[in-house]
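Folded chain entry —
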Amino acid sequence: MRPRRHSYGRGGRSAAAAVLLVLCLCVTGVFLLLLHGSSPPLDAEGGKEQAAAAGGGGGRHEGPVVLAEVEEAPLPPGNARVAFLFIARNRLPLDLVWDAFFRGDNEGRFSIFVHSRPGFVLTRATTRSRFFYNRQVNNSVQVDWGEASMIEAERILLSHALKDPFNERFVFVSDSCVPLYNFNYTYDYIMSASTSFVDSFADTKQGRYNPRMDPIIPVENWRKGSQWAVLIKKHAEVVVYDDVVLPEFKKHCRRRPLPEFWRDWDKPIPAEAWKAHNCIPDEHYVQTLLAQNGLEEELTRRSVTHSAWDLSSSKDRERRGWHPVTYKVSDATPALIKSIKDIDNIYYETEYRREWCTSNERPAPCFLFARKFTRGAGLKLLNSSFIAAR
């Protein structure tokens, strides 16, 4: 009797082929995930919702909304974080400067949020730093200088950043701002203070305070200062949940059209040119809100971001007016950076107050950041190692 052979018919071969096909598909899927790692948007509630938010908010967005499909920079959990809140027009021209700064941290002690025009997405095509991938907020608004929309942008950034329980400090950063020191020094400087850093002083100029704000905002609570503040969590929550001061600012704190005749080369700035403006909301809102809530004792009443305003006699018409000077490539020198780092006190004329700068109860430079720098100036500083060193 011949031995019985085990027969492998068509059914057996089909099953083996099916198993092999499934294995191939699984391996291919894993490979694609590794190759095209993606991260959820800041408010991860579905792609459709993100796409709708990116195209809304009053801004104009042409063409289809494309979501970023790139990996975010990893942030190990467990450390108190400083949230950097960037207010940008579109792209971040100084992203490489900040990339070098953030590379100085290996412990996940920072987070990043960017408010840009509605519909703008930070991808490999729009930023050269992986730290900014997908970090745009998905409900941004169209921001106009001198309008309450700037306040709305700040509140949107804070509301996103407050969702992360590890965020303990909140730093407003402009798209033309550069860090002056490395990450470790900056982090220790900010975290060692139990107060917010808010440039705040009594504003005695006529035409800024609108009497119609009284009695909701009495004149004795009216403050002015730089919008580039560093807030502790308590004060960030006060800003986000405010429903008293902001409505008054929207109604009564507005800018008037800026005259252009005095920008000419051969005409001096009129002595009372400031009267052309009534109120710039972002220069008053946070300061007035915190004073209104009786929180000034919890503030270090100075900014840690330097801006140069004293150029009224400059012959360069681009450097005259209502905005701080913009530093160009020719300005980006070691002498400039050293002069900013050497500032150790600030004098407030309206209050006859001199603020001596300290960190950890020791004398320290006043400023951690500086603005306004062009992209070329920032890259020159980066390549020459003038900044981000301690």
Notes: The first helix runs from residue 10 to 35.
